[in-house]
Structure formats: structure tokens, C-alpha cells
Design brief:
Strands 1-2 form a two-stranded antiparallel sheet. The protein is built from two helices and two strands; from the N terminus they run αββα. Helix 1 runs antiparallel to helix 2. By secondary structure, the protein is of the alpha+beta class. It is elongated and about 65 Å long. It has one domain. It starts with a helix and ends with a helix. This is Lipopolysaccharide assembly protein A domain-containing protein. Keywords: Cell membrane, Membrane, Transmembrane, Transmembrane helix.
Length: 82
């Protein structure tokens, strides 16, 4: 049941972000280190959300990897003691 609620919550968040993005279609100036460019605000919003989700996913994967490594180490120590 938890997975269904997570899916529903994710869909609601995606719909809110999509609606917010569609409303904001005006061009904006994006400044880079080496220059600037005109981009539609919808692309800036969607790009920021995607990069944030990617960064959050990568950090989560790193934490999971660290926890799995610690679990294996603890399991090896338990096996060694018994």
C-alpha cells in the first residue's frame, strides 16, 4: 500500500510542476560563466527539477552503497565472532 501512495504523491508533484512550468513560458536570460543566453522559463524550470532529481538520486545511491558496505562489514564481524 505504501508504494501506491508514493506513486500517487509523485504523480501529484509532477502535475504541479508541469502546470507551473506551462504557465511560465516567458523568455529569461540565463547567465553562464562564459556568456548568457535567452531560454524559455519552462525549460529552465524543468531542467532544474530534473537536475535536482538526478542529484538527489545519486546522493541516495551513494548513501545506500555506504550502508550496504557497512552491513557487509558488520556481518563479516558477526560471522567471525561466532
Amino acid at each position: 500500500m505504501k508504494k501506491e501512495w508514493n506513486l500517487i504523491l509523485t504523480l501529484i508533484i509532477v502535475l504541479v510542476i508541469a502546470a507551473f512550468s506551462v504557465i511560465n513560458v516567458d523568455p529569461v536570460t540565463v547567465n553562464y560563466l562564459f556568456g548568457e543566453a535567452q531560454w524559455p522559463l519552462i525549460l529552465v524550470i524543468i531542467g532544474s527539477v530534473l537536475l535536482g532529481a538526478l542529484l538527489g538520486g545519486l546522493l541516495s545511491m551513494l548513501k545506500i552503497y555506504q550502508l550496504q558496505k557497512a552491513l557487509k562489514k558488520a556481518q563479516a564481524e558477526i560471522d567471525h565472532l561466532s
